# Entry
Amino acid sequence: MDQIPPGTDLTKTPAGKPPPGVDSNLVDPPSLATATHVVTTVMIILASIFVLIRLSSIILSGRRTAWDDYTCFIGFVLITAFAGLVMAFTNVARHVWDIPLSYLLAPSYLRFIFAQNILQAPAVGFAKASILLLYLRIFSVKPKMRYAIYAGLIFTGILYGVHLPLVIGFCAPRGDSKIIDFDSCAKLTVWGPVQGFLAMLLDVYIFILPFPVINHLKLPPGKRVGVYVLFGTAICGIVASTLAEVYRFKQWFNRADLNWHEAKLFICIIVEGYIAVIVGSMPALAAFFRSPAVSNSSLFKYVRSHISTHIFHTSHTNPSAKPSKTSGSSGTKRSYTGTNSATESNEHLRDEKFSELNDIPTSNANAYSHATGPNRDIEEGIIEKSVAIKQSQQSL
# Structure
């Protein structure tokens, strides 16, 4: 940073030179403060709901807390601490020529840079590791899948673990100083795009990892789609990490307006971290609503009854439903080719001899039983821990 002449009023001095034709505005400039507060608040609320549901699911199911639960909770706490720091310093979420120099030279702001750099990588790293550990708990019966998950965990540990020594090396206060060297810490912007690109690859890996196993599960088509959608929510992480990478590059190539791009980057990092927490907690959502304490409650029955009534009414008032004649021993019967009712759907499943949602192919039953015993559930309501083959062989 250039030498500041003695006696300069830092509160009235812009931290940077504006582009040609633009004037500094230190009073009411364009700011990303509102966007930061709104997006962060929404994500905190959503993630908190999923974390509470995850805790409730553990309590209601009576299962032991696993490593994926611990890492998810740690990631949630760290990303919330990071988000709190970012919201506390939105007074610098402006173009650099609209920021008073006194803001950037305040010891509290320089300590903020160090603290947010310390929290950023572990927060996102723990949240993403929780998804991989969830996969390990669900799909570890297959050796290839288990090794693939271990590889992902090692990659995650290296990617986000190396960030901490870099921050300490470039941003930690030196000697008796209690503040960081701003120019030294700014060099970390070079590492940012590298880490961001690798994070994108990790998110793609997390997204595609469970699908080969899901493809081999014997599920009714509708429920197979539901499982795809549930695990497919990880694509949101790819979107968030891609946007974060865009702003890392903008921050790197346009250091003259560092704070503006950094504010956008912080929003993306917050979204990326909370999405990882939500994705890792999605299976618990299904388990929560399947638990007897919830599914047998009056409120749940009321909502389910009204939804079922609406679907039934829609299926029988559908203009596209055409009456057709079917001949039988008792005469001519009328039926509808529109949406099937629940009874017709169940009969169809029996006719097609589908397994229940949590069943697996008979050819794999011995392998599953050998690895985990007769009550292996593939996660909380999706592929739950049951290898009992209940396939109906009823003759109609």
Observations:
- The radius of gyration is 27 Å.
- The longest strand covers residues 323-328.
